[in-house]
Write a structure and sequence with these properties.
The complex is a heterodimer of chains A (118) and B (225). Chain A is of the alpha+beta class and 118 residues long. In chain A, 23% of the residues lie in helices and 33% in strands. Chain A has a 3-stranded mixed beta sheet, covered by helices on one side. A 3-stranded antiparallel beta sheet of chain A has the order 4-3-5, with no helix packed on it. The longest helix of chain A has 16 residues. Chain B is built from 8 helices and 8 strands. Chain B has a 7-stranded parallel beta sheet, with helices on both faces. The chains are: A alpha+beta (118), B alpha/beta (225). Chains A and B meet through α1, β1 and β6 of A and β1 and α6 of B. β6 of chain A pairs antiparallel with β1 of chain B, so a sheet runs across the interface.
Chain lengths: 118, 225
């Protein structure tokens, strides 16, 4: 719920700052390791956006794979089945390159015009 | 009317992260160790805290922030032990956040406190994403919940510095393979310190108390430098 609210806050803030009267598309990035289920995020977002500039916006969610770099041998690899051990030398992973993203990437919509209805 | 595309690239949790950083600064200035204690409901967070308060008496000064959706029951349990305890009611939210902690800090006297434990709302999902400004995330998994939990809640295991496997006195009565918990937790986070404990019998608790003492000493030293 609060993650959906944060998305909406950012979209409204950015929308206002760029003079958008209606937001049609919101692009998000959600890492595979993030504790966010895209379906639940969509559900919560739908409940919250009523009577905002994002009322008709669709959510596009890009998933980001979990990628790690081994601190011992430097191998870059995708973490599969939640095994955070280097695929090459078996050492535990200390550095995550990606997988925890929770970002608003961009928004698209209509700006200005006399027929914006506001 | 024109169609526009606006690049944003902002972290969804940036507002919370800023608040958490400010909290962290306060903790570091005071040289206090802060632990964010997380688990599912009923794994034994408050029982562990009661045992920890008893065990650390005369060794470290504790304070506690209790997070629950409703009720002040947990804070009263801790307060009865003679320790400062502040209750946060999240009014429906399933996790604590940086802003709630900032407010709770107004009700706590940090002078002379060595360790502040924040007991999060019982939930293995959302609390993992919301930083509070803590130095360590610590999680409890009770054996009654089953050995499959690391597979189902990977982030919580991946980011916790310590894992307490609680209620080990129940092992003879349930179908939980504690070796599997160890194996699966190690795959997710091999640098995690793991403690097998029973808050009921007291077994294994001394190692946990020693861990807290060591981490508290690290914070004190960091402040001196």
């Amino acid at each position: 719920m609060s993650i959906a609210q944060s998305v909406l806050d950012i979209v409204q803030e950015e929308g206002r700052a760029h003079g958008l009267t209606k937001v049609r598309l919101i692009r998000l990035q959600v890492g595979e390791l993030a504790a966010v289920v895209p379906e639940s995020l969509r559900f919560c977002f739908d409940l919250m956006r009523k009577e905002t500039i994002a009322e008709e916006a669709s959510l596009e969610i890009e998933r980001v794979p979990v990628v790690a770099r081994c601190g011992e041998c430097g191998t870059l690899f995708e973490v599969e089945n939640n095994v955070f051990l280097c695929v090459h030398c078996g050492e535990p992973v200390m550095e995550l390159i990606s997988g925890r993203e929770l970002n608003v990437l961009s928004i698209e919509g209509d700006a200005g015009g006399e027929d914006d209805g506001s | 009317m024109t169609e526009v595309s606006v690049p944003v690239v902002r972290g969804i949790l940036e507002a919370n992260d800023r608040l958490a950083e400010a909290n962290r600064k306060r903790f570091d200035e005071a040289g206090i160790l802060v632990v964010n204690l997380m688990s599912s409901p009923g794994a034994g967070k408050t029982s562990l805290l009661e045992k920890t308060v008893d065990g650390l008496r005369g060794r470290l000064a504790m304070a506690v922030i209790e997070g629950d959706i409703q009720s002040t029951y947990d804070a009263e349990r801790i307060h009865r032990k003679g320790v400062q305890a502040v209750q946060i009611n999240t009014d429906g939210a399933c996790h604590l956040d940086g802003g709630m902690i900032r407010k709770a800090l107004d009700a706590i006297d940090l002078n002379g406190v060595d360790v502040l434990v924040i007991e999060n709302v019982g939930n293995l999902v959302c609390p993992a994403e919301f930083n509070l400004g803590e130095h360590h995330k610590v999680m409890i998994l009770s054996v009654a919940e089953g050995d499959d939990k690391p597979l189902k809640y990977p982030l919580m295991f991946q980011i916790s510095s310590a894992l307490l496997i609680n209620k080990i006195d129940l092992l003879p009565y349930i179908d939980c393979d504690i070796k599997k918990i160890h194996e699966r937790a190690r795959q997710l986070n091999a640098s995690q310190d793991v403690f097998e404990v029973s808050c009921r019998t007291g077994e294994g608790l001394e190692a946990w108390l020693a861990w807290l003492e060591a981490k508290a000493a690290e914070r004190k030293n960091a402040r001196r430098e």
